[in-house]
Amino acid sequence: MNTKYLIASLGLASVLSFGANAAVHQVNAQEAQNLQSMGSISVSQIGSSPMDMRQELAAKAEKAGASSYRVVELKEGSQWHATAELYK
Question: Coiled coil located at which positions (predicted)?
């Protein structure tokens, strides 16, 4: 799978997911232009899925006080890794 497909999967998963992390939402690059950056976070998991990664990113973003986040890097394989920019 290529990175663009995985980022799109994370985006789709965020639209379909209505969980405890509903207060924090994922944005695209165009939406992020109107927001104030407040740093970045990253998550790594073994044998993960796009939905699991999205949930962990949203939980970390919420804990950091962000209102939204944008995935800027995603690597898959036996060890998944994602980095996201946080926004107020």
Answer: none
> Is 68 in contact with 23 (CB distance < 8 Å)?
no
Total domain count, the chain: 1
Tokens at 12, concatenated? 């789709």
| pTM higher than the cut 0.85 | no
Residue showing tokens 């796009």: 50
Which CATH number belongs to the domain containing residue 13 in this structure? 3.30.1660.10
Four-CA torsion 9, 80, 37, 14, nearest 10 degrees: 30
Q: Phi and psi dihedrals of 70, rounded to 5?
A: -135, 125
> What are the pLDDT digits (tens) for 37-86?
999 999 999 988 888 899 999 999 999 999 999 999 999 888 999 999 99
Q: How far is CA 12 from the centre of its chain?
A: 11
